């Protein structure tokens, strides 16, 4: 989700880690809504090629007064698609540049030849080049009115219909939706809302239940804490102790200066209130690391080593008698595993934690309207300072920023919440290391609404390229996913 961020200066900071949705720029909202993001491997991968195309989409699919259109970008590879009626794997774009997702969704590229499939990567409206009002799209909140998941799903359904109508040989092609994090949510919802458009969907690390009243708001950070607790002795305990240590040192000018130098901050801490930003930034960093705890070197929002949390925890082995200075020196070294693994970073900027390929302002708006995903901490069952979920404070932040109020129950109304057993042909895959599993579907709901669990799997590990260090669990998961794809394709073609 993206990950699913954060903000300096507000007691109710919003973390929007996008799945994806994942993690991003620090911002003045609340620390309880994360976005989701896609990742890219540092290991060798075969070169890919695609055609860049544009489709004229309606700005408003559900009304008749706004008659404007915009060019939706989509990318196509038909290298292995040689047979009339052969399948199409359709990536439901997340909150970012579609070329970035295209280059980093290796599972689709690894699977295309086996299925003889065409690959289509559709960009989500308001992200990348797909801007309904061009450069004015973010200039005023009135232009953002058409940035909703419902409009995006309609874009995908209309585009699929157009492809079947205009691409020679595609009229009878079965289409399977694939996405990760927020994109995985969209893939599942596309199958639910437009079953005639796609025969099935793979929703990887898709927290479709991370909404008000569906799951406990504290579960996300419990998983983050567990990941650190299992990766090194005293690791989570020392992170939990670090918040008090930061408070102690920040009470003096000398302490602020020491913190600024020790953490190599680009902008020194000037007053005790600035420390809120430092702590928010660290909280996001630990959450990001939990999402991308991969078994090989990878480049998520930052380049990282194999099993990065284990590397982080090597700096946090102290017993309880360590001084505040020693403890925070270890915290600084641990944070630099995330921010300076390459050794090329001159200073650390606590106002950002993520890549520029993600459209964070757009996700902030979505989080402030329908994507209300409560997250909280209690400081008891997790390693963070207590931060209860406060919807009213969150709503006030959103109104101050965009002039809109969030509808916290809207997603359940539109997509059914936990009452989705009447749907069919959706795979929900989740890794046990991924904190977004807290809002995911982790048990079978019917014979065709199936859950695949990936042990030692982080955020949508199954959608990444095959890698020599992949755990057996993700290899098995991908095989099972392809098995379902083949079943769906056989069912669709035999019923024609």
From TrEMBL:
It comes from the Eukaryota. GO terms for molecular function: dipeptidyl-peptidase activity; serine-type carboxypeptidase activity. Its EC number is 3.4.16.2. Keywords: Carboxypeptidase, Disulfide bond, Glycoprotein, Hydrolase, Lysosome, Protease, Signal, Zymogen. It is found in: Lysosome. Pfam families: Peptidase_S28 (PF05577). It catalyses: Cleavage of a -Pro-|-Xaa bond to release a C-terminal amino acid. GO terms for biological process: angiogenesis involved in wound healing; negative regulation of systemic arterial blood pressure; proteolysis; regulation of blood vessel endothelial cell migration. InterPro entries: AB_hydrolase_fold, Peptidase_S28, Ser_carbopepase_S28_SKS. Gene3D superfamilies: alpha/beta hydrolase, Serine carboxypeptidase S28, SKS domain. Belongs to the peptidase S28 family. Cleaves C-terminal amino acids linked to proline in peptides such as angiotensin II, III and des-Arg9-bradykinin. This cleavage occurs at acidic pH, but enzymatic activity is retained with some substrates at neutral pH. Homodimer. PANTHER family: LYSOSOMAL PRO-X CARBOXYPEPTIDASE, PROTEASE S28 PRO-X CARBOXYPEPTIDASE-RELATED. This is Lysosomal Pro-X carboxypeptidase. It comes from Chanos chanos. The lineage of its organism: Eukaryota, Metazoa, Chordata, Craniata, Vertebrata.
